[in-house]
Amino acid sequence: MTPVSSKLYADDVSLLMVLIDTNPFFWNSAQSTLPFSKFLTHVLAFLNSILLLNQMNQVVVIAAGYNSCGYIFDSSDPQNQNKRAEDLLHKLEEFVDNDQELCREESVDGPGFSLLSGSLSMALCYIQRVFRTVPLHPQPRILCLHGSPDGPGQYVAIMNSIFSAQRSMVPIDSCVLGAQHSAFLQQASYITGGVYLKPQIFDGLFQYLSTVFATDLHSRCFLQLPKPAGVDFRASCFCHKNTIDMGYICSVCLSIFCKHQKKCSTCGSVFGQAQTQNSSTTPDRKMKMPVDG
Amino acid sequence: MSLKDAEMKYNREDEEDDDGDGRGVEAWERDYADERSWESLQEDESGLLRPIDNKTLYHAQYRRRLRTTTAARIQKGLIRYLYIVIDLSRAAGETDYKPSRMVVVARQVEAFIREFFDQNPLSQVALVTLKDGVANSLTGLGGSPESHIKALMGKLTSSGDASLQNGLDLVQSLLNQIPSYGHREVLILYSALSTCDPGEIMETIQKCKASKIRCSVIGLSAELYICKYLCQETGGSYYVALDEFHLKELIFEHAPPPPAIAEFAVANLIKMGFPQRAAEGVISICSCHKEAKVGGGYTCPRCKARVCELPTECQICGLTLVSSPHLARSYHHLFPITPFDDVTPSATNNPSKLPKICFGCQLSLLNPGNMPAPCVSCPKCEQFFCLDCDIYIHESLHNCPGCESFRHSKSVVA
Ligand SMILES: [Zn+2]
Ligand SMILES: [Zn+2]
Ligand SMILES: [Zn+2]
Ligand SMILES: [Zn+2]
Ligand SMILES: [Zn+2]
Predict the structure, then answer these.
(1) Is B77 on the interface with A (CB under 8 A)?
(2) Zn-finger regions (C4-type) at which positions (chain B) (predicted)?
(3) pLDDT score, position B382
(4) Which of the ligands is closest to the CA of residue A122?
(5) Nearest C-alpha of chain A: how many angstroms from B28?
(6) B325: closest CA of chain A, how far (Å)
(7) Where do the CATH 3.30.40.10 domains begin and end in chain B?
């Protein structure tokens, strides 16, 4: 910890973890108006500009595929100093081929979903390692370039990752490339204080990326970044993995169910009478009492 | 968990200070001589005092982790209504705790409220203060930690006597109005050595008992018979704190649901709504304050009325509204990840099967000289992880990156 290094790692040095959605079923579907190759040109230009903005900046790319997740690129790796783009594209190709080999289904209904929870978990592990190893470290943040619809089965895992990121004060930015909003990423960005953006015109993707997501965390305080246009707080029920906005909660373990159950499938409690709403409302309202002060 | 870690780190730094920087200073100059720093020394299994090194820290965490995973499926979703009664009588101004009893109590209550909502996401807390012989309701029952903490920090002055009876009377009348599935609890942080009551306190205690209110007291000075009696009658616990650290421990014991009430709790299925948060900058009239508000706010999924804060009950249709992330905070207790297995280099004969990098953080698992470093592996996905990732995954992340990264193992969720 010399004074020199502390000067080098000023508050505007970033560690950017980029999670790229490589789910082939999404990129080939009608949902994506942007071809994957075009998308990659935008992203490569963006990654290069991050590395040029500050010589200390670090970029790590993780692919979230359909069957697996993997590290694609790390700018701190001494082998990656030259030919960055080639190395990245080479590794990405390898990854996509491997991912395809793991695929056992011939075709899927709709675009399916990618393993966002796995790539988030890996990114958080990497960030913890950076926190651990160097006393002065770049400011980490995660950027999800995501297009596939949410996989309701990943609900618990993604929420766990979000809370862990929140505890370590790592913002999760999201750029949604699919047709619909992503409730998971809306919550992730809202809870961790990141930026959520769903670009309107994909031809200008680089411009969106560079104006919204390129700035370091310190400079963000001075910018008017896109404000969330609402946050979808719907949850997945544990019984059918449906996304619901109203449901039944087990008072013992907080499991969410979409229909009334006799017994909780998570903790095994047998339920008495379902709480009818009206029995509890009237006395409750009286509880509003003048607060001293 | 993270709180405890931070605290252990803090203690550790304290001790390092003792050996290092503290040496050049006279003992009487040292601030912490006042704070009894020797009491923060840790005892090992054989009863020896020693500074904590990384290894014991690691093992302590590991043991704690195993304990929490085995006890994971106990009741986490009890709906508790807890009144925290804080004595701000003259005695709370005493300085045997530094800087004063009430400041220490307020600090611990702040930490406690956060921990409480982490562990009891559906529960509600309210604050009552005892001062000048009367009891004041500082905040009403609510689920937002920030509003309680703000109210408490703004009211830190002490004067007059404390009246246990007035406090209990007030709390009892308020707790009588809560829904039947809620558990009623009172936690009293009592500094005074007497109670100055307007009537017969024994009757009040019987009333609390009849209303099934569990009363617990943590004393800051000495044991009082009336407190002990109150706790015995109502099934609560009574302790007297020895110092700040002990006080913290005692308060935090109330964060997980008490096993006694967990036993006779009736499981219920409660209908709830997960409102959407409205876009920033949208103007609408909220149903709770009947005011036009800009931005924020949540929309009831059943009747589309606007409310300002969660959790709450919809004023229009009566649906209980919660934020789903609030519930999700405790789901890692429901689906704990299995402890990872230690990988001993000698056990695997095939050297090519030995891991080279950690699956989570890409750290090399080879020590200098290509000797395998200690590592662990997940029994489900058979990926290898470094020891630091092992701790992080089990203590904070609660996901196995390996299991989450392969589709075939998707059955781990649910
Ligand atoms: Zn369902
Ligand atoms: Zn349950
Ligand atoms: Zn409503
Ligand atoms: Zn690791
Ligand atoms: Zn695993």
Answers:
(1) yes
(2) 300-317
(3) 87
(4) 4
(5) 31
(6) 7
(7) 337-413
Per-residue HEC secondary structure of B102-155 comes to HHHHHHHHHHHHHHHHHHCCCCEEEEEEEECCEEEEEEEEECCHHHHHHHHHCC
B198 vs B216: CA distance, rounded Å: 22
Residue A287 lies in a domain: no
pTM of the predicted protein model: 0.73
3-state secondary structure B193-218: CCCCCCCCHHHHHHHHHHCCEEEEEE
Domain final position from A202, A222, A242: A222
Q: Are A246 and B272 inside 8 Å of each other by CB?
A: yes
Our count of domains for chain A comes to 2
Of A148, A134, A158, the closest CA to residue A21 belongs to A148
Q: Which ligand is nearest to the CA of A263?
A: 2
Domain co-membership, A122 together with A250: no
In percent, the amount of chain A with pLDDT more than 90 equals 37
- Secondary structure of residue B185 in the 3-state scheme: strand
Phi, psi of B344 (to 5 degrees): -95, 130
In sequence order, what DSSP letters do the residues of B31-92 get, joined into one string? HHHHTTGGGGPEE-TTS-EE---HHHHHHHHHHHHHHHHHTTTS-----EEEEEEEE-SGGG
| Span from the CA of B314 to the centroid of ligand 3 (angstroms) | 5
Instruction: Note whether residue A144 is domain-resident.
Output: yes
- Looking at residue A8, what is its pLDDT? 54
pLDDT tens, position by position, B98-127: 889 999 999 999 999 988 887 777 788 999
Q: What is the pLDDT of residues B76-98, one digit of tens each?
A: 556 788 999 999 999 999 888 88
Q: Report the pLDDT value the prediction gives residue B62, as an integer from 0 to 100.
A: 62
CATH number of the domain to which A196 belongs: 3.40.50.410
Does one domain contain both A25 and A53? yes
Q: pLDDT at residue A290 above 80?
A: no
Sign of the CA dihedral A49, A115, B381, B392? positive
Quote the domain boundaries for residue A242.
234-273
* Chain A residue nearest residue B413, CA to CA: A153
CB A246 within 8 A of CB A229: no
Residue B38: what pLDDT?
58
Q: Which amino acid is present at B193?
A: L
The residue of chain A nearest to residue B323, with distances taken between CA atoms, is: A233
ipTM score of complex: 0.85
In the three-class reduction of DSSP (H, G, I as helix; E, B as strand; rest coil), residue B234 is classed as helix
Do residues A264 and A176 both lie within one domain?
no
Residues A179 and A264 in one domain: no
The answer to whether B397 contacts A160, with C-beta atoms less than 8 Å apart, is yes
Residue of A nearest to B273 (CA): A246
Q: Which two tokens stand for residue B63?
A: 């043991």
What mean pLDDT value characterizes chain B? 78
Chain B, window 273-292: residues with a beta carbon less than 8 angstroms from a chain A beta carbon: 273-281
Ligand having the closest approach to the CA of A255: 2
CATH number among 3.40.50.2300, 3.30.1490.20, 3.80.30.20, 3.30.40.10, domain B337-413: 3.30.40.10
